[in-house]
Amino acid sequence: QLVESGGGLVQSGGSLNLTCTATNRGLRAYPMGWFRQAPGKEREMVATITTLHTPWYADSVKGRFTISRDNDKVQIYLHMTNLKPDDTAVYFCRGGRFQKDWGQGTQVTVSS
C-alpha cells in the first residue's frame, strides 16, 4: 500500500528527494514517517509527520532533512540535503492506523 521512490547514488554534500505514495487513500488520516536501515544496523526512525503537518526529526538529520506531506495526493516527501556517507541506507515509509503499513524501501547511497 506504500510505494517509495526517488532513491539513488549521490556524492557527499548532495541532495535527494524521496516520495512515498499510498495507494489506499484512507492512509491520509494517519501520521506517516520515514525510516532507514543501513547494513548490519537496526531500522531507525528518521522523520515523522502528523496529519496536521507537525514534523519530528532524528537528531542526526535535523537541519538537513525536511519531511512534508500532501494529503490530497496521499504522499509524503523527504527532502534530503548535505547528505553524508552515514546516510547510506534503505529508506522506508510507514503509515496506517496502527503504523504497521510499510513500503518496500528505496536505496540511498552517498559516496565520499
Measured distance between first and last alpha carbons: 34 Å
H/E element sequence? EEEEEEEEEEE
- The 3D shape can be described as globular
- Helicity level: under 10%
- Average of per-residue pLDDT values: 97
Please provide the count of β strands: 11
Number of helices: 0
Radius of gyration: 13 Å
Secondary-structure content class: mainly beta
Secondary-structure map with pairings?
Blueprint: E1 2-5, E2 8-11, E3 16-22, E4 32-37, E5 44-49, E6 55-57, E7 65-70, E8 75-80, E9 89-95, E10 101-102, E11 106-111
Parallel strand pairs: 2-11
Antiparallel strand pairs: 1-3, 3-8, 4-5, 4-9, 5-6, 7-8, 9-10, 9-11
Detailed description of the structure:
This protein is mainly beta. 0% of the residues lie in helices and 51% in strands. The strands form two sheets. Strands 2, 4, 5, 6, 9, 10 and 11 form a seven-stranded mixed beta sheet that branches. A four-stranded antiparallel beta sheet has the order 1-3-8-7, with no helix packed on it. The protein is built from no helices and eleven strands.
Protein traits:
single chain, 112 residues, mainly beta, seven-stranded mixed β-sheet, four-stranded antiparallel β-sheet, globular
